[in-house]
Design brief:
Length: 215
């Protein structure tokens, strides 16, 4: 793990969209929110939708009203992109509005220095954007072959929990998002804060040394 960075409050935007996977979203969100409780001023977390209309999560079990839409969102230092079920991923890849409006917002921010952090199949959603080109990337084990087929300019990493490429962080399935978020908190603010969060969560974390592929 790299030495902790001293930095200002980081704006962390969580992209939400139809059928978003709840733990993909809430796992990392809770890590950053709790980090900000323990060490105030660390993170400013908010959700962003295409519009301000409610977004239905996977299986329509609940709806979430975004904090901002893509027109009114503060400039993010990091965009977190949770995944969704494979059928919905393929639907999004063919959805012109999702590609041209939502993912264009992600791409424009990425091109201006925003860190992109995908959870699970969230990396697959970026397959048509060019954001993943020439990076080491991963996703849920069930979609690794599909990710490789759709991203032939990328190097697919198998058997890892997450991959840190500095401007792009991708993770394996669902709970790997929690591990990667804890890793990022440690990268930003040091291991002591991470250990406090692990104790607070009562979380049996996978060892970082066994979980990460780095550039």
């Amino acid at each position: 793990m790299k030495q902790a960075q001293n930095s200002k409050t980081m704006n962390v935007a969580f992209l939400i969209y139809d059928q978003v996977e709840v733990l993909d979203l809430n796992g990392p969100l809770d890590v950053f929110v709790k980090a900000n409780v323990v060490q105030p001023g660390s993170y400013n977390c908010y959700t962003v939708g295409k519009t301000m209309e409610p977004v239905y999560t996977e299986a329509n079990t609940m709806s979430i009203i975004p904090t901002y839409d893509i027109q009114t969102s503060p400039k993010p230092d990091m965009i977190v992109i949770p995944g969704t079920n494979p059928d919905q991923v393929m639907k999004c890849l063919k959805d012109n509005d999702f590609q041209n409006i939502v993912l264009n917002w992600v791409k424009n921010n990425a091109n201006n220095g925003t860190v992109i952090f995908t959870i699970c199949t969230g990396s697959m959603l970026l397959s048509e954007t060019g954001i993943l080109d020439h990076y080491d990337i991963t996703t849920h084990s069930m979609l690794l072959d599909a990710l490789e087929a759709h991203n032939q300019e990328s190097n697919i990493k198998r058997g890892v929990r997450y991959v840190d490429q500095e401007q792009l962080i991708t993770t394996a399935g669902i709970t790997a998002g929690i591990d990667a978020a804890l890793y990022l908190v440690g990268k930003h603010h040091g291991k002591e804060l991470v250990n406090t969060l692990i104790t607070l969560f009562e979380y049996q974390q996978t060892r970082v040394e066994d979980s990460i592929a780095k550039q």
